[in-house]
Amino acid sequence: MNTVSSILNTAKSTIELESNAIRNLSDLLTDDFANAVELIYNSKGRVIITGVGKSAIIANKIVATLNSTGTPAVFMHAADAIHGDLGLILEDDVVICISKSGNTEEIKMLVPLVKNLGNKIISICGNKESYLAKESDLFIDSTVEKEACPNNLAPTSSTTATLVMGDAIAVALMKLQDFKEISFAKFHPGGSLGKRLVTTIDTVMQKKNLPICSKDSNITDIIHTITDGKS
After folding, report:
1. Is residue 174 within 8 Å of 69, Cβ to Cβ?
2. Measured between alpha carbons, how far is residue 108 from residues 28, 60, 86 in Å?
3. Contact 25/143 with Cβ under 8 angstroms?
4. Burial of 22 from C-beta contacts in 10 A (0-12 / 13-18 / 19+)
């Protein structure tokens, strides 16, 4: 097999593995997912999302998605949390902990500290038998059968699955909030998308020094009026 074919086959295999991982997520949904969304929706606080390693990177993306769709969210690195960043968590905040194994040392140290603060913990985790899954108030299962990595080690399918679960939470909240295009524009005014949503006739129309012609003006008068900017 030549190099080009080999590369393309690897790419196709990766896409298929991750597609299957996402497809299987719907079978893992339980009442805990719905209860987690309702908990966030009814909360007067923010969503604090935490993790380490690749989970922390995915957490950052979910935070960005929630913020742009009407749900205030803040990222907190799990390692930094146990060195002072716990101060980010306010009384009414809901904490989402992300971890594939659910047994990382930082997470195991963080969970009891959050509980002592009295905040609810939602876990997005790929191991239902883990410490995190069992100790969280609500558990969202993001288990994948296999990573796309040929050694079944590097987070690939698992991070994709976690990202999709985060999107599912954000979209479910948007539905509850009746989040419209104009709402999105409010939080995303920049770029071509924001400009398309917020630009109206009123914002671009010239309102002063308008050239005005009478209905009896001939074409020469009209041209002079437009050129001179005078009535």
Report:
1. yes
2. 24, 20, 14
3. no
4. middle
